[in-house]
Design goal:
mainly beta, Lipocalin, 57% strand, globular
């Protein structure tokens, strides 16, 4: 690791969780998948995958987000995305800005209430040579009674209607 980050005189000072982010405290942390399945109409069969995702507070009025997935069978890399989860001053309106490795960037907007986060795309940008254009995404995160994070997403492309795409269950890494 770069010495700059380890030196207390030069390292970034991370503050406490910003007051605006408090309605999202339940999702803050690093999570690893317990079970995760991806499926889509163009796939021959569902595929099990592993995922490591994080929602991190640096003391700003937003969360930093990363997700890394790999094939559960051969452990090859699959997908990477990163971005920022913003919350409005009303304490429930959210915007999720996400860059995806396949050449799309999304703005997803929705609501957080209790321990539920629901998002849908409001804007999608694609690089000009993307293989499949995503038309719409819906994401749903929730925290169950066991403290596990549940995730469900639906996706629509130019070739397929809005369809179940991913389902995962995570446990928090300690």
């Amino acid at each position: 690791m770069c010495k700059h980050f380890l030196n207390p005189k030069t390292a970034m000072q991370i503050g406490p969780v910003h007051e605006m982010v408090k309605p999202l405290c339940w999702i803050i942390g690093t999570w690893k998948s317990i079970s995760a399945v991806i499926n889509y109409p163009n796939m021959k069969s569902p595929l099990n995958y592993c995922e490591h995702l994080s929602f991190v507070s640096l003391g700003q009025p937003l969360l930093n987000y990363t997700s890394l997935t790999w094939n559960a069978g051969d452990r090859s890399p699959m997908h990477l995305e990163s971005g920022f989860l913003h919350i409005d001053q009303d304490g429930c309106s959210v915007a999720f800005l996400v860059a995806q490795k396949f050449g799309a960037a999304t703005v997803e907007e929705g609501l957080v209430r209790n321990k539920f986060l629901i998002l849908s795309t409001s804007c999608i940008g694609h690089m000009k040579f993307v293989k499949k254009e995503v038309v719409s995404l819906l994401r749903h995160y929730s925290l169950n009674d066991k403290g596990q994070l549940q995730y469900h997403t639906m996706m629509q492309t130019i070739d397929a209607p809005l369809t179940d795409h991913m389902n995962a269950l995570y446990e928090k890494c300690e």
